[in-house]
Amino acid sequence: MAGIHLHHHDLLHEGPDAIRPRLARIDDVTQLFVQVNDIFERNPSPIGTLERNPVADVILGEGLVYADVDVAGLSPELHQQSRTDAADDPLAIVRASTLGDDYEIVPWLNITNGAWTGDIAGNGVVDYRGRPVDRWLCPNGPLVAPMWGRVIVALVERYGYRRFLIDRIRYPDWGGEQVRPANLLSCFCDRCLTLMAEQGIDGEALRAELTMIAGLMKAGEFEAARERFVAEPLVRGWLRFRQRSVAAMVDAIGRLVREREPDVELWLDLWPPAYSWILGQDYGMLTALSPRLKHFPYHRLGGGADVQSLIDHFGHDDEARERAFAAFTRLFGLDYGQTYAEFRADGFPIRLVEDQNRRARDESRPGTYVYSGVQMWNLPPDELHRAAVATYASAADDVIYYCYGWAATDLFGASNGARATARPTGSAGSTRTSGAG
Question: Contact at 8 Å (CB) between 193 and 201?
Fold first, then answer.
């Protein structure tokens, strides 16, 4: 039951009739993860063009929701801005086509990142310096879970789909339209400061500690900053606080949805375990709330993180960049004996796929169904095939390709046979225990 992501502009600009023959070339795809709301990113990212899109070579996401639901009426105090063009409704396009006859449709939602209207000040993320983090909602924002509970119920009632993939269930990272490392050191909104105090975390002492660590980074003392970050008990307590906060938000959204629609499932789109912990995602906590997860150990793209932009932000010459990269790989457990120059040329080795899928399995609740994201753009066909083989040979249950629109046409079908190569008839496949839904 492999899957592939479809962006809303794929369906609007190319249309299902053009998309279907290319999907049919991939011999193991049975699920389509259809984007309902987008984020502020370049399509494709970070470079390249949309090879088959007849309207635009590059599309910049606007953080809007593309669905026939009254988001403002459902949550007037806080809601995502929406597209008013009725034709740009990806779920309606899919429902009107024959794609649903051959594929399971899973709507794909971005939860905390977008273009918002309403009480952003009372629900947005604030960094350690007290500055708002643009376009990000805080998992502890009092209106966030209620808003999404109502919106998901409305999507179920409007379109009938009962399984959703929820993405951006985390705090901000450093990437985006600009590199902002301070975004990672959040959230210090009033609600988070109150909750931290209730849980024994001194917010002002934490702010001072993070300021000191940020100062070490700016001074080029990368290893000293890493050592202090991992050793300081106050920081460790804050990281666990963030993980509890994200899990509480996911739990609250799920409970609100199930009050109205008891059989709806919310599947998780997570960062790979190497990075998830620093963004507020704890696999154990989250997989207690959901039967399935997808993560994305894209080896060429630094395991899904914008590694190069961060290293280049802090390293002002080759020597500093090498030191920054060494501290980075130690912090995230990604030391494959590479120099930064080697990483820039080749990314991480494909072994990353096996390593991260093993960790995802080990850190998840027994019985969790684990999808491994497979990078399907900015790489040659033979490397896509090798990455798919490595994924099927790993502890993951299946793959989700990312993504249809970004992929070069010669990549469709390039992974065919990977499952059979990695899991010959009679082999055990993944190490998943039974019981996942």
Answer: no
Which pLDDT score is estimated for 240? 98
Quick one: which of 135, 177, 171 has its CA closest to 309? Answer: 177
Which are the contacts of 121, defined by CB distance < 8 A and separation ≥ 6? 132
Q: How far apart are CA 401 and CA 191, in angstroms?
A: 37
167, β-bridge pairs: 110
Q: Considering only CA atoms, which of 204, 205, 201 is closest in space to residue 245?
A: 201
Q: Are 172 and 135 in contact (CB under 8 A)?
A: no
For the chain, the helix, strand and coil percentages under 3-state DSSP, each to the nearest 5: 45, 15, 40
What is the rounded distance in angstroms from the CA atom of residue 362 to the CA atom of residue 92? 38
Ramachandran bin of 135, using left for φ above 0, alpha for ψ from -120 to 50, beta for the remaining angles: left
Question: In angstroms, rounded to a whole number, what is the distance separating the alpha carbons of residues 30 and 244?
Answer: 34
Distance, CA of 110 to CA of 97 (rounded, Å): 24
Cα within 13 Å of Cα(393), Cβ side? 16
Q: Which residues of the chain have pLDDT under 50?
A: 426-437
The DSSP 8-state label assigned to residue 82 in this structure reads B
Q: Residue 21's CB: how many other CB atoms inside 10 A?
A: 9
pLDDT at 431: 44
3-state secondary structure of 32: strand
Query: How far, in Å, are 53, 109, 309, 418 from residue 267 at the CA level?
Result: 29, 10, 30, 25
If you ran DSSP here, which 8-state letter would residue 127 be given? B
Q: Let me know how long the chain is.
A: 437
Give exposure, 294-330, as e/b (b: 16+ Cβ within 10 Å): bbbbbbbbbbbbbbbbbbbbbbeeeebbebbbbbbbe
3-state secondary structure of 424: coil
* 323: CB partners within 8 A, 6+ apart: 220, 222, 223, 315
DSSP string, 39-64: -S-EESSSS---TT-SS-S-EE----
Contact 404, 7 (CB under 8 A): yes
The pTM of the full predicted model, rounded to 2 decimals, is 0.96
pLDDT 10s digits, 400-415: 999 999 999 999 999 9
Bridge partners of 402, per DSSP, are: 375
Q: What's the pLDDT at 433?
A: 36
